[in-house]
Amino acid sequence: MKLSHSLFLGFVKLHILHHAGEEPVYGLWLIEELARHGYRLSPGTLYPILHSLKEENLLSVQSRVVEGKARKYYSLTAKGRSALAEGKAKALELVAEINE
Ligand SMILES: [Zn+2]
User: How far apart are the CA of 14 and the centre of ligand 1, in A?
Assistant: First the structure.
């Protein structure tokens, strides 16, 4: 990420939780999705973020074989779902204040 890593880390994490809550997601898909929103992450940046979300028990991981290759899919846990709801409320509150 070119812009301040610490500033955008929370946005990126919320974004990941949002998509993992819709359907299981994998690393390359997330890199492309985040790039679509202007967040350019290398695998070397994304994977530690996914790992930390898993360590916090916000994401769970399943291995699936796709076209002969093992791929890790990340899904939102129950804890992740409440963290996302809280994060979403905080983001909306912040946007409202910034726009005042
Ligand atoms: Zn998105």
Answer: 10
